[in-house]
Amino acid sequence: MDKNTITGLVLIGILLVVFSYLSRPTAEQREAQQRYYDSLTQVQQHEEELKAKQEAALANERQASVIDSTATFFSATQGANQQVTISNDILQLTLNTKGGSLYSAVLNDYMEQDKVTPVTLFRGDDVQMNYLFYNTREAIQTKDYYFSPVNRSDSTVTMRLSAGADSYIDFNYALHQGSYLVDFTIQAHGMQGNLAQGNKSVDIEWNQRARQIEKGYTYENRLAQLTFMDMDRDIHEMNAARDDEKQPEETLNWVAFKNQFFSAIFISDAGFQKSRLNSKMEQRDSGYIKHYSAEMNTAFDPTGAEATQMYFYFGPNHYKILGATGSEMGKSWKLNRLVYLGWPLVRWVNQFFTINVFDWLLKLGLGMGWVLLIMTLIVKAVVYPATYKTYMSSAKMRVLKPKVDEINAKYPKEEDNMKKQQEVMQLYSQYRVSPMGGCLPMLIQFPILMALFFFVPSAIELRQQSFLWADDLSTYDAIVNLPFNIPFLGSHISLFCLLMTVTNTIYTMYSMKMQDTGANPQLSAMKWMSIIMPIMFFFILNDYPSGLNYYYFLSTLITVIIMTVLKKTTNEQKLLAQLEANKKTQKEMATGGGFAARLQAMQEQQEALRRQQQQRKK
């Protein structure tokens, strides 16, 4: 490229820049362009809305063409959707005439967060129920038809879907007095010519968005999960932390859409088959926790000779209320398995000990904070013998530590570790001290200590019960609300959780002083981890119920007091003298098959084997 060409290109570029600058629109022109673009956007939005309305109208026309004048329930395709309410002293159930099914469930004895309005488990579009019947020409979906309420009383109603004067399907609802249980039956009358007589089942579609009823979204979401039990009385739970879907092959006895403290349960004695269950997460601040759905079928007699008997439970997740539900009819549904009480061994402790003691204390009329305090003291008293044995085992190890240090100094090289361990084990054997002596007592007390840890978050009795600064022991007690969210912590700081963390840190440091690690880097690292753990628990438990953190705080504080008293009342000189007396029976311990003696024998065998291997290599 020659000089003239380059000069020409440069001049063209300069001209383009100058032209662009001179031809740019003025502020008035830019404003006019923006108004033009806005008008185009509005026109497009209007066209999209018009298109959507046209598509909806076409869909309605298609639906109308499906339910034509030859349909079995053509006379029930037109009507006005109305609500019909039945109630007892604790439950108010409202039904829709369109679909003949659920509209709302209100629990009179439990209040919303405003502590004035009764808890509404679901309402309106929160719930959809659809039942499908079949004949040779069509699938009859009850959601498309209008039912007529007949035989109505305060606590009972029949929702009737009529094909003719003497041909109809009845949905019968009956509330039990003083109960959250609803009898629900489906029965055909004079439908032999309108239903396929060979089809002995009815398909069910049940959808419900579980409302956020409690203050804490995070913790309520953690305990809200779709749960079901099969006919073999095995409980199954969907994943509460993510979207989940299951198609169980077993016949199901009941399906529960569970919130933290309340549940909607559908029960069938004949069982639900061909089930497809789905649980989806709802967005924070949407007002909902989960979106549940269940597709299944159950037995149905199209001749009407036998009714399909089912039940609903709309009520609290109260262990004893759930356990008693159905017992008056001789039913054993085990609905109380919805209340999570921990692993099997811990659950047994809660079932037979914790719940009964808790109920006894409540009958005394004590405040919930005092009930938890007394429960903690009772638990500590029960496990005290094991705590004492654990402490004494640690004290014996502590008074023998100077002798262990002498052995460690005798074998400074790594290749002498086996000899060092042998002599340490021999030392413990001589003094009748087992290094594992404190482990068994800890294992014994662990299920009892953990029982309250699992019971408190599931105890609906704590709901909206205040203590000190906590206005609701079933959720977090925020003393500081942050304008931003801290990862793993949230947007608040709970005072009981903070107290629990401080107390655990003090206890850990106190325990460290009782155990001198010396120059052992492994033990030092473990103790630093022990200090970090309470801080980690602060982040984990900050969203947990204040009642749980209160219990955890009390439990640790009482443990610190017990350990302090034991340390001050234990004369370590006398303890050492007692151990010296035990040394005189070393021969008995060595030949009596004690744990330390067996461990020493195993180490001697390993050392002999190692020497043989070294000789072979030479």
Describe the structure.
The protein has 618 residues and is α+β, with helices and mostly antiparallel strands. Among the domains are: 259 residues, Distorted Sandwich (Beta-galactosidase, Chain A, domain 5), CATH 2.70.98; 160 residues, no CATH class. Helix content is 45%, strand content 25%. The chain contains 15 helices and 20 strands. Strands 5, 6, 7, 8, 9, 10, 11, 12, 13, 14, 15, 16, 17 and 18 form a 14-stranded antiparallel sheet that branches. The chain is elongated. The termini are far apart.
> How large a portion of the residues is in β-strands, by DSSP E?
15-25%
In one word, what is the shape? elongated
CATH fold node name of the domain at 81-339: Beta-galactosidase, Chain A, domain 5
Q: How many extended strands?
A: 20
| Helix content range | 40-55%
Which structural class is indicated by helix and strand composition?
A: alpha+beta
Total DSSP helices: 15
Task: State mean pLDDT (0 to 100 scale).
Answer: 84
> How would you sum up the major sheet?
14 strands, antiparallel
Q: What is the CATH-assigned architecture of the domain at 81-339?
A: Distorted Sandwich
**CATH class value of the domain at 81-339:** Mainly Beta
